[in-house]
Hints:
Helix content is 64%, strand content 0%. By secondary structure, the chain is mainly α. Helix 1 runs antiparallel to helix 2 (23-42). The longest helix is centred in the C-terminal third of the chain and has 20 residues, at 23-42.
Amino acid sequence: MPWQLLPAASLLEPWTEQPVTNPFEKTRHERLLCHANHIASSVPLPH
Length: 47
């Protein structure tokens, strides 16, 4: 999968740097975070 080649930080960084003022953008931000969390939880991480 292509998203596995990208570090999670690169996906979250642009969103965490800027404050979200638009309610639509906030919903979109939360949806992306949930999606990122779902991806992270579905990928087995080495301990």
